[in-house]
Design goal:
The structure is a single chain. The protein is an alpha/beta fold and 442 residues long. It is 44% helix and 14% strand. Strands 11-10-9-12-13-14-15 form a seven-stranded mixed sheet. The protein has a six-stranded parallel sheet with strand order 3-2-1-4-5-6, sandwiched between helices. It is globular.
Amino acid sequence: MKITVAGAGNVGLVTAVCFAEAGHQVTCLDTQKEKIEMLEKGHIPFFEPGLEPLLEKNHSNGQLCFTTNPNQAYSEADIIFIAVGTPEKRDGAVDLSYIYAAVYTIANTIKKDVIVCTKSTVPVGTNDMIKQIFQQRKPRHLKVDVVSNPEFLREGSAVMDFFLGDRIVIGTDNPEAASIMEQLYLPSMIPILFTDIRSAEMIKYASNAFLATKISFINEIANLCEKVGANIEEVSYGMGMDKRIGTSYLQPGIGYGGSCFPKDTKALVQLAGNVHHPFELLESVIKVNQHQHSLLVMKVKERVGSLKGKKAALLGLAFKPETDDIREAVSLTIIKELLEEGTVITAYDPMAIPKAHKLIGNSIEYTTNIRQALKGADFAVIATEWDQIKHLPLDAYAVYMKEPLVFDGRNCYSLKDMERYPITYVSIGRPTIENEKRAPQH
């Protein structure tokens, strides 16, 4: 099929590249000329494991092309995927201006019957509005079928999720469009769920809200464990043995971030409010998460006292491992609060420094060398569970830091391992390890 993807962001570019890899003729459109020029050279504007080699392969063999020209992108497409940004407004509602701009352009450009699929996460009812726009704006002799096809791609494993995901959701009231979409996705062997359009839109929001709820729940249990002397690792493991609960998203920490969970939970609360349905549970989930973001700095201040002039090693800037995305990253809250206390910060991250520097500027120092970040530090704060941090020899904290005091917001290390080193180790929901400073054990 001839496929066009509108938007070359994290979702759009992965969708375009992977459909090309599956054998379709794909055009990826974006309004940013600089981004398209970068993609034409085989480079992607963000870090996503495994994506760049597939892009280079399919661009070189002609399966994938990039353009800023709507006529080139839309006029001959069989299926158009809308994967443009849906940023958050100040009140928590979703900004749909990019969605509607894409829809108007498509309506004014198409030259044949087409299926238009919304990949972007949009509030329930948005695709009905899109259908109305097409009815008013498209050429009368052309047929446009609107389909809700939400994405479930996790940053850091998006390519794998595209080909080996848990489900594909197709929301449409047209059996013919449903059949075409089924043929498109059948080779992947991923289970396909057919629903009405509004249910498809809600599945995306409900899924993210539920996962966010699990995270906030286990974080509240972790905080309670600290007060009653229990170990959250043993508690979460015991919970996860129950098949009804499962082990996923039961890892305690300093809260969720990123481009999806914070935005989608607030958008769902806003949507509920619009229909006079107080979503008290989700409001509490958001409140718990916001408190969790400040937890590590609170722990640091309780133990260290005044932070003025103290040197901090901040390990991890990205909101999660295997991405350079810092949107709603917990590290941003930590940096803000430490700077307000007069702390000198050296931040380590293997991928996210360029984006962090663009946002934060020179108020902190940056390094891609963990040991350089630790050198002379009064304390270390772990904000992202990168493998480079998890696999760091633990004696590095004792060797390089002025005071081997580690505040681990992701529970990267086992307590048993930490007990072997002269390190004071404070984690989430577990007993604190306090060892006297002595020569590191090897």
